[in-house]
Amino acid sequence: MSRYSIKIKKEPKRDVYYVLNNENQIVHRSFVFKKVHLLKLIKTEGRVIGGCFTPENYRGQGLYPFILNTIGREYFETNDFNLYIIVDKTNLASIRGIEKSGFKRVNSITTKRFGIFYFNTNIEYI
Prior knowledge:
By secondary structure, the protein is of the alpha+beta class. The protein has one domain: 3-Layer(aba) Sandwich (Aminopeptidase), CATH 3.40.630.30. It contains two helices and seven strands. A hairpin with a 5-residue loop joins strand 2 (about 15-20) and strand 3.
């Protein structure tokens, strides 16, 4: 992945991780949210990776597992092990990337949201 660089933009409620190519173009973006109410459903706290996006012409090059691994290592080195990823359970390509990067599935939450309220919630503990 030496042909890519990482840029991190720190914001009050989230950090944004960008993967840039040699032309300094964004080829992947991942958010790390500092607080997500969804975690209250499983009675835990932590940072949440979500809102990840890779343009179609850069997919299949391992960028998603690369940035997830980078983020995971960064938090691991600071002894922060409460890091979660939100992904739609039908997004099999993303799930493969998550597993490839070393993350393990611990819970599956199916819910509907209206504003900050969740309803029709089903939690599967793995």
